[in-house]
Known about the structure:
Number of domains: 2
Low-confidence stretches: none
Distance between the termini: 56 Å
Helix content: 40-55%
Strand order of the largest sheet: 2-1-3-4-5
Strand content: 15-25%
CATH class of the largest domain: Alpha Beta
Mean pLDDT: 90
Oligomer: single chain
Structural class: alpha/beta
Largest sheet: 5 strands, parallel
Amino acid sequence: MPKRLLIVDDEPHNLEILRIFLKSLHYDIHEAECGADALKLIDEKDPDLILLDVMMPDISGFELAKLLHERPGFDTPIIFLSAKAQKEDVLRGLQLGAFDYLTKPFDLDLLEKKVSIALAHQRKVTALRQENVQLAGKAFVDTLTGLYNRAYLETVMDMIRQGAKTFQVVMMIDIDHFKYINDKHGHLVGDEVLKKVAQILLSRIDLQTDLAFRYGGDEFLVFLQDAAKRMEVAESIIQDVSSLTAESKFEGTTHVTVSVGMTCSLEEDTSIEQIISRSDTALYGAKNLGRNRLFVC
């Protein structure tokens, strides 16, 4: 897909020269003759690069650049193209965050090179930003199960305290006799069981609204937004896990089950810590009643 370039200049002759030249380099060209039109096109077209004249009838290029850089998250590179060649003008343009400043009349070969460099720089910035997002995401994910980890749980709990997130149901889930599975079949088999249980959790919750965490060891924590589906979700998790078996070449097979503790009466004055503690109490209720079941508290 060709890169989108926005040319902002109130001189039709300049626009025509730049349009013909840059189109010959296979860029997707958009044009504006004033700052107001430029702002509209920036919102509509999201250009990869802006070539910006300084002297314009409504607002100057300097003022437009200042407005753009005040926008949260704005990082489109700007190259000023201006007849204002004084040192203080060039410095002002660069101080306003421009990637480069070329004076008119400009050399087209030099312009081609400057545009190419600016776009290459932007690609690197975008790639680094995506990599940082991925790394940040990994910091919140349990590497074995692919579920969210305790670090992200703390973040979510902060959001809940601030009212930024709400959930109607909390479930604490524990693999029954997991130590026995590890002791009999080894930790590699135990790890496979953890992965499979995690996959079941992800398959049964709504990934758009609900959250699943590896709480610690063989315990999992699930937050649900839709209380109406709580029984269906819990029972399907118990049923799906009960079809799993842990097995190794030398030690035969072991049936896998989980116990589930659920809290669904979430009073407004109850803290998230109290809610999680209540779901943990419910989990022990399920264990005491024989495991492989749901207990609601």
